[in-house]
């Protein structure tokens, strides 16, 4: 049967051709975990957001607040620790290869930064235009801000991950010198931060756990990549120890069951991360490593591995645009008089309707992937120019500041003429120009 290379069959064939060329030494299970973790996050976001109609208006319900028992589900859907585990594995392998080839830090990190930031810029541009024109045409600013904030929330992760990746030469050197001791020092740091925050009320110190928690999991990725966690003993100890610690922290400590923020909760386990989320990450890492032999055997099947290759080829696009698809479906339902939004979240009818809603989200997401995945591919194939270190670091700081501000306060503003915090929008673009984003890079060179 003839297939259009732009269609689904063509995508599958291209992924299959790539899968067939995979070097035998590649650990396919790493790619599988990366795809699985992102898809779990996407599914979790689509599930917990539960808007419904009340008195003729859309109310932004949150499933974890409506049905407290569903907070336990976050122990399975909050899998960002797995992504940092995989990141440690990949960064360790890549940086070691760069050192063997006498490559530079600037060249290595520029490539990784470009691959991650390129797909973000179109998302920022589209939502900036929405906020500008929505405000200009009289859409209530609270609605504009809510939609833009929801759609752009995923960028918080990139801000943290880019910073963690930027520290790889340092953290990898520490790992090579002190091994698992470097992991335990980070664990101790996370414990100290939580104690200072929750026991002694030290202000702002909680944000240090964005470093301690995620760097600790990242160090485990180094251990995995160097064969320190092979067999059953180490992974089993991680899984059991992490789970027991998590149960104790939730049962006897101040930590909530939910591993993400819940409206009305005084403490969030994720913003910033706590010891409870770190314990969950250790349990998930142990379980993932226990299942590695089984997973690697399964991924020898060409069809299974092709599916993983296909998802990884568009993984950033899926992650960045999945909440835009969600917002688009909700807006469509609202414009049609709230069709499908009258069932109370958590009711039997609401649960029965989830497969249909997920199908709608996917149907809207697919064309977004078709349009915007090219930017992900541009990032992978970008010219790995040797950006001066000072410019690279400046670009990184600007990008991360813009992404963090977007997740914290939104690009949409309730005040001002434009309705947009233009400085927040500008920061990632300026940073991208400094590290080499096509026409923006050429403009930055002229100005420098």
Q: What features would you highlight for this structure?
A:
448 residues, mainly alpha, two-stranded antiparallel sheet, 21 helices, 2 strands, globular, disordered N terminus
Describe the structure.
The chain has 448 residues and is mainly alpha-helical. The protein has one domain (24-447). Helix content is 71%, strand content 1%. The protein has helices at 8-20, 28-48, 63-66, 74-77, 80-100, 105-117, 120-136, 141-152, 155-166, 168-178, 180-198, 209-225, 233-252, 275-290, 292-298, 302-312, 315-335, 348-380, 389-409, 422-435, 438-447, and strands spanning 52-54, 57-59. Strands 1-2 form a two-stranded antiparallel ribbon. A hairpin with a 2-residue loop joins strand 1 (52-54) and strand 2. Helix 5 crosses helix 12 (209-225), helix 9 (155-166) packs antiparallel against helix 19 and helix 17 packs across helix 18 (348-380). It is globular, with a radius of gyration of 22 Å. Residues 1-6 and 441-448 have low confidence and may be disordered.
Cross-sheet strand order for the largest sheet: 1-2
The beta-strand count equals 2
Number of helices: 21
- Average pLDDT: 88
What kind of sheet is the major sheet? 2 strands, antiparallel
β content, as a range? under 5%
Indicate the structural class: mainly alpha
Q: What is the alpha-carbon Rg in Å?
A: 22 Å
- Outline type: globular
Distance between the termini: 55 Å
Question: Which stretches of 5+ consecutive residues score pLDDT under 50?
Answer: 1-6, 441-448
* Proportion of residues in helical segments: over 70%
